[in-house]
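ugh ok so i messed up the first submission bc i forgot one of the chains. this is the corrected input, ALL of the components this time, i swear. 910 residues overall. if the numbers dont match what u have on ur side tell me asap before i send this to the collaborators (the ones from the other lab, u know who)
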Amino acid sequence: MENAKTNYSRRSFLKSSALVGGGLMISFSSLAKLGLDDKVSGVDLPDQWYELTGYIKITPDNLIKILNPNPEFGQNVMTSLPMIVAEELEADWKNVVVEMGPHDNVKFGPQFTGGSNSVRMYWKLLREAGSAARHMLLEAAAQTWSVPVEELTTKAGMIYHEKSGKSGTYGSFASKASTIPIPKGPKLKDVKDFKVVRSSQKNVEGLKIVSGQPLFGLDYKHEGMLIAMIHHPPAFGMKLKSFDAAQTLKMPGIIDVFSQKLYEEGFELGGFDTRTFNDLLVVVGKTTWEVINARKKLVVEWEPAGDIKETVAGRDGKREVVVPGELENTSTQLAKMKEHANKPAQQLRKDGDPETAFKNAAQIIERTYTAPFLAHNCMEPMNFFAHVTDEKALLVGPLQAPGWTKPTLSKLLKLPADKIEIQMTRMGGGFGLRAYGHYLSEAALISKKIKAPVKLVYTREDDMTYGIYRPMYTATYRAALDANKNLIAFHVKGGGIPEHPIHANRFPAGAVDNYLAEGWQIPSNITIGAFRAPRSNFNAAAEQSFLDEIAEAMGKDPIDFRLELLKRAKENPVGENNDYNADRYAGVLKLVKEKSGWNKPENKKYSRGVASYFCHNSYAAHVVDMIKRDGQPYVERVFSAIDCGIVVNPDAATNMVEGAVVDGIGNALYGGLTHKDGAAVQNNFNRYRMIRFHEAPKKIDVHFVQNDLDPTGLGEPPFPPVFGAVANALYKNTGERFYEQPYNLQLNKTSRA
Amino acid sequence: MITLNINKKNYNVDVDPETPLLWVLRDVINLVGTKYGCGVAQCGACVVHLNGEAVRSCVTKVSRAVGQKVVTIEGLSEKNDHPLQKAWIELDVPQCGYCQSGQIMSAAALLRENKNPTEKDIDAAMAGNICRCGTYLRIRKAIQLAAEMQRKGIKIP
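and heres the new structure output, hopefully the right one now
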């Protein structure tokens, strides 16, 4: 996910609050008068809840409810975002309850999970919300006690007036506070005074998760709800020709079978309306199993779809796209990439005179890396509930970006946006996939057609074989060394199906006098999209393996080599648009060097690989320690150093880094989706290998750089460099360099040989 | 009509006896803590106990559960206070949380048989449960903590 720039500032937060309440602070009774209570309050809220700033509700007996605005997909925002509010509110975290907020971009801002942006984009907004509410409560107390507001202090949900010895709970002033306008530009705490933020708080949904309570989209139930599945073509490049549903309709529990176009011809697709197939063959029945079974009885003829023209109005403006009709094979994909790699490509950045430098080089190192398509494999398969009538639509389920999907639904259903309600459930994983809202469109159209509430369910096979995958990538890196083994030029030419991975302004751009970055791409009908740290998840494998080889050729320690480059980038940077901070980048390398005991003799028994990377505004470095276990390389332990600014919830952040490391090892070693005649070869977990319990390291030692910078991202940044560190450790362990992912393929070849 | 004993309660359900137990639990009895992840016994999200044994409910025909005691995550403990549930919360194991009920049910079957599991015992018991978020390390620690709690009678409040 690219860093989405948000225009949602404090000003718009204040403005939106004003829009909702007329005054800037509103109680429930005033909401009821406006007819907004249902939309704002959700369910079972007693009348005595007083709402402050939209995010906070307080009862007279001092229970504080904080609404989490952003979709939860495992990054723990249900806990970390309310913590930020509670911090500035000076609430007692023990008395805080958290509830998922409704979708309302006016009131709650971007409400977008992706790009490691949740904490980053809500940081200031939520601090101000908490602080504003606190000031309103103080003002209410000052008026009640007839004392100057400056003489009041707050602590853990209480207000104190030291001179008079008076004290009172927030709850006792909540009603009065609702008559006071929201202060503009409320003063924020000094970070050194934080009590809730920066101390580990447990997942507020932990108990619900371990006791199996309904939380996820797939768990959602609705009166009269039917189940729908879409029977997709067997391969990319195919489409529905005809079908015979006679046998299916005879099966128990089956209500209807029909075909349905998703988007009409010429429908302008938004940037996140990516969908794999447009002709949907839909089976609707009473229960999931009945639909799964009945689907098998469909008699369907498919035909080649041919080239398809699409109009996409994405981030880069409106453009016409031709999706080729070829039924692709992995072998031909690889061959095509090889061929394209030798053709001229688009120049993305050039510093100095790389051509001459390479001509004059004493030594040139050239290596080519490839990586396959990856399926997201969220543990909860794609699903969404929809109930569409002529007047309105209700959609409930797991998705990352309701605000991006609603305009499409509005166009598709011909309903005004305010007649469409999207409720966000907890997601059983997302990893980028759930930013794409096509499955809401599918569910909504099915509900509209059958005039009933329905849940669209993808089986695991549907989920894996009709994905919106991480693209297939390749890159050729070249380094020029002079006679003294100095790095004088660096060249990367990257390509992919259907997009290239290159971030031209990333390290080592800025650190080498002569630098060239180029990109090329091959169109494809295989649908692709964001996958945990898009592009970076390939670059950090290839580039960081390559840097390891350069260091070796130069006879340098791989960490020292990177630090030297970073020193250069800091002191005398080449070019102007280097998008990383060399100090922070070096900081994580130094930290991981120290914490891992990089040069300590007792660690010599490990095959050690190091890698670092910058993406999504944060910095990460890992040292992977590999051993041989039962004759096979195994990552026994990992040291991680991260700089993401202030860490809101340290233990949960550590958990996320641990997870990123495990996920990275798994995808580096085993991840891969291949195609035969357009069909995904891997259709379930028996064929798509995921890292398993015993394959995870025994220990992951996570360290955060301690600084007071505003928080940046964490979900993605630790993930990419794991790939490079694994490749570099494999080299130490096996004596072979690894250029093709998943690395397990080469390991298998070696062990067979 | 089929009679099932689930979490010490009897349910009469009118389903095809071939239906996997998973879908009866989720769609008919409305116990949705047991998750669908793959449908082919590969991911472990659907693990329940059948007479104390961990089984994958996605490939267990409902007819096989007749006359047996079925326990799901919802019935693992009376007050959500099984040592594993306590340890899971204590160590803040979940990320997305979707696979965790299956993980806990696999671990519970292990601890029922083996009060003091070795690393290898845990590896073997948990190899069938996938977690894409990568919480395996914490799961391991939580199982060890729960085993210790069980052995020493320690309770986390």
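quick check: Residues 1-46 of chain A have pLDDT under 50 and may be disordered. that seems consistent at least. Chain A has three domains: 10-204, 222-310+382-457, 542-752.
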